[in-house]
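Here is one such protein, fold included:

. . .
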Amino acid sequence: MAKGLKGVIRLRKWDVDEKRRVLRQLQEREDQILDFMRQLAEQKKAEAEMVRRDSTGAGFTFGAYTQWARKQQQDLETVLGLVRREIEQAQDAVAQAFKELKTFEIAQANREAAARAEQDRKTQIMLDDIGQEAHRRKQKT
């Protein structure tokens, strides 16, 4: 049965690694969205600065650009919220998988400790028998 637990432990480790990989991908996606949001904010500042410098030509298109930028910002915030919910779910999945892995690892450690204790007990009994036999032989002589 101990061999069976080692296989289950190996499978659980793989499962934890896979769930961590998914979590890492989601976190990278979150970072990308935050990057897009920063870039959009910088672009809005640059556009506003351009309009401030050249109010005659750029002012006509700035309103449409502002609406587009606001829509982009809202879309990014929506996607960011969805990704963050997925991250929370992935974190819960990693925690659950890790908990299951630890349960099996502890069970395996307990089984190994019990097997060592049993082997130590048998060895001690054998040594006690040898000691008693040696003592009896010594008493006879």
Notes: The chain has a mean pLDDT of 91. The longest helix spans residues 59-140. The chain has one domain: 2-140. The CA atoms of residues 110 and 116 lie 10 Å apart.
